[in-house]
Structure prediction request, 360 residues.
Amino acid sequence: MDIEPFRISVSDDVLADLRERLRRTRFTTASDATYWAAGVDPGYLRELVGYWADGFDWRAAETWLNSFPHFKAGGVHFVHLRGDRAGGLPLILTHGWPSSFVEMLRVAPLLTDEFDVVIPSLPGFLFSDLPAGVFTRRGVAETWHTLMTRTLGYERFGAFGGDIGGGVTQWLGALYPDEVAGVHVTSAVIPDVPDPTAEEQAYLDHLAAYDVRDQGYSEIMWSRPDTLAAALNDSPAGLVAWIADKYRDWSDCGGDLERSWDKDTLLTIATLYWATGTIGSSFRQYYDYPNNRPVPPILAPGAVTLSNEPAFTGYPRSLAERLFADLRHYRVPGRGGHFMAHEEPAQVSEELHRFFASLR
Prediction:
């Protein structure tokens, strides 16, 4: 499969249209006097949109993004950083939703002392094509296996991810234990549990209660993705509101979004989604979610560094032990949320170095 160098280049016309739309945004009023109680605070959104229209320097962001080596092969966009050490272990890092390859760019340079780093964009996200069939985590794992072994020529590699990326990483460890040296996830593994312990049942009850409060976003994306996409693909203010809402909720930021995501980083990601028109195709993994099957036992050595977010409060290690046949590393650091690689890059680097060093 041919590997082609790739460069991010958003046209002046697209940027001019974006700024015009931002300046014409019709803002709403808050439904609740409590800050962010009913979703993105309209005052904060007005400030963010104003900066996006008249302060944010996309060209500087684009230059920074292009300082990393980008490629495309077989419809997959990826960043590929060669490590400093000959024979270093290849490591594939997979993001989730509503994220992007940008999530991994802070940690990637901290890994090249020991690893070749590959950061793909999930299918349908930004510069990666949607699959011809349904979007499943297993299907992405099979695509990643092809990318790493056939396209890039690695005989053995490690894998890391959270959220959707965590599911893909689990499948890599289950399907390819002979070629995958180890798998490291930050999203807790939640397998089918036919006979939960009291501790496990308490956690599952907590998760069900949390989902009632949190799952509104996913309900519409798996049931009516095209309706929502029509709005977000036409309104950049709506697009960034939809993304920022989840970044604030799921990051370990104490309610202060910009503790984890400064405006420039947030708007870099929003501009990428806008310029590629892929917020709708990023919903495909929700619409196709019923096609996913439970992950079989993961035979590759496994590691969990548990993210600090409400969904995983009280998560018992025993749930991970039910799925990982060889769980070598388990840690609850108490910091770093859903997007841990971006929020706590030094922590993630240390965890990855420690885990994979133990496998040598």
Observations:
- The chain has a mean pLDDT of 96.
